[in-house]
Amino acid sequence: MYAGIDLGGTNIAAGLVDENGKIVIKDSVPAGAKRPSGEIIADMANLVKKLAKEYGIEMSELSSIGIGSPGLIDSDNGIVLQIANLNLANVNLAEEMEKLTGVKTYVGNDANCAAYAEHLYGASSGANFSVMVTLGTGIGGGIILKNKVYTGHRFGAGEIGHLIIAAGGKKCGCGRRGCFEAYASASGLINMTKHKAIDNPASLLNSIPINEINGKTAFDFAKQGDHASQEVVDEYINYLAIGIGDLLRILYPDVIVIGGGISKEGENLLVPLRKKLREEVAFDYETEIVAAKLGNDAGIVGAAMLEKTVL
Amino acid sequence: MYAGIDLGGTNIAAGLVDENGKIVIKDSVPAGAKRPSGEIIADMANLVKKLAKEYGIEMSELSSIGIGSPGLIDSDNGIVLQIANLNLANVNLAEEMEKLTGVKTYVGNDANCAAYAEHLYGASSGANFSVMVTLGTGIGGGIILKNKVYTGHRFGAGEIGHLIIAAGGKKCGCGRRGCFEAYASASGLINMTKHKAIDNPASLLNSIPINEINGKTAFDFAKQGDHASQEVVDEYINYLAIGIGDLLRILYPDVIVIGGGISKEGENLLVPLRKKLREEVAFDYETEIVAAKLGNDAGIVGAAMLEKTVL
């Protein structure tokens, strides 16, 4: 049995995971973002202990604990190198957790954990090489090569969101221009949808208040035949295809897994995306483009399995 | 002892290479691009036999023969899948060479061979992860991960020249818009220099006939203080940094090796490139950016060592 922890800015979710990647029990507690690191780590340790107790096993029966954390993680040593919303920078999470639990602990980047879970048990199961692209507020990524998480020279590989796909283009949150996530994240899509609403007063996009426009809006109204909404969807898919095309050209994986909120559009998103790739961007690549399968559980499952990767 | 063959559209260059990656003897014959495959293969076999004889060893003393070929190569089976200028499409080069020589033969893509040679014995020697970017007529690339050539799912990984870095931008020879090589290849630089000459009649760029402008012109006149030439160099380095930044974000290698004609500018190119990357594109990446060391020999040496990679 393994324990996996998905450490987020809002919640700490944890689960016990069996050899087949199945979560047998899970629970969560608030992350309490502003707290000192010691309190967060104590809560993670207590959560795992509680789950073990409820499931009726000793902590010593855990093969390992894995933690998926946001930020830049030194996964060789279990140290958080950079992190935005939690007071964990320069903390050796692995060591601290081991002190509190007596169980060997691994730490990895959360997006890499999700990609790893999909690779082992989800949408890219069976692939030699897979890449996960998570379309959320930003764009997260994880690269799995031959069943190992690929983190490159200093753990920063797979920063897919900040690929520059449009030199001199839209301003990105990172300060540069033309990043993939400025166009193809959920935020990018919402931004595009709002601009289109303003420029097309007759569009159905204006049938809801502009601040209620979300990542589903353009897809929903396009289905109802709204022309401006269809333009947004087409433009969005064009940029998504360009970024994914860049991944194909560099990495040529067997499978690309699309995750995050936008991936819930399913074939509605994937059919035109595959067509765009095949006809205009990447031609004869044989890479499968599929939606993520494990949803929010991917973070727990991938973290639990970190001991299986040489990070 | 190994034999390495660098198969080009113009010449077939071959050499015997020792365990330390040193070419002990080499020679070349014209490729004769329009000939049937059998003739080309016979010439390759005879060239290796001639070298062995001249060096005074038996063919049976060769550990293997490696061929670096342009095009898309099924390096698992030694088959040329796609190729532009030689009649070798769908030919099993490995099998045919083995019939003629009695020596185990490996085949790989030529850009990958050059990258592999630099990784083993050249500019990226000692790196865990390295990427070679060759700035020639197009942009070639090779990715080496932990001493193995990385070719992805179906041998097409590392197509760095066709990364889209400027969606909707300059037309590329491949038919798409905004590819890295449309901006940052030697051809891209020459094109940029010619346009700048036309738009700046007072520039030194107009002191030579426009059709004599080459990949050195802007660099040379910039050194003499020509403003328009400096603008070309700055613009060129900006685009080069964007493409290399994309490689850093996806792969985060220890070393990026810049090869091809433009790399002869050396630190004149690399100093501003590193500055651009650090200050505007990639911030705190620790990747070394260096010029290739092995020159034209890289193709022979990398091909000779193909048996050492699981392709």
Question: What do you see in this structure?
Answer:
Two copies of one chain form a homodimer. The first copy, chain A, is 37% helix and 20% strand. The two termini of chain A are 20 Å apart. In chain A, helix 1 crosses helix 2. Chain A has 311 residues and is of the alpha/beta class. Chain A contains nine helices and twelve strands. Chain A has a five-stranded mixed beta sheet with strand order 3-2-1-4-7, sandwiched between helices. At the A-B interface, helix 7 of A face helix 7 of B.
Task: Write the SSE topology.
The structure is a homodimer of 311-residue chains.
Chain A (H helix, E strand, L loop, with lengths): L1 E6 L3 E7 L5 E8 L6 H19 L9 E5 L2 E3 L4 E4 L10 H9 L3 E5 H12 L7 E7 L3 E7 L2 E2 L30 H5 L1 H14 L17 H7 L3 H25 L3 E5 L7 H15 L6 E4 L5 H8 L7
Parallel strand pairs in A: 1-4, 4-7, 8-11, 11-12
Antiparallel strand pairs in A: 1-2, 2-3, 5-6, 8-9, 9-10
Main traits of this protein?
2 domains; alpha/beta; 37% helix; 311 residues; Nucleotidyltransferase, domain 5; homodimer; 5-stranded mixed sheet
What's the CATH architecture of the largest domain in chain A?
2-Layer Sandwich
- Using only C-alpha atoms, the radius of gyration of chain A works out to 20 Å
The biggest beta sheet of chain A reads: 5 strands, mixed
CATH fold group of the largest domain in chain A: Nucleotidyltransferase, domain 5
Helix content of chain A: 25-40%
Strand order, main sheet of chain A: write it out: 3-2-1-4-7
Task: Give the oligomer, counting copies of the same chain as homo and different chains as hetero.
Answer: homodimer
Superfamily (CATH H level) name of the largest domain in chain A: ATPase, nucleotide binding domain
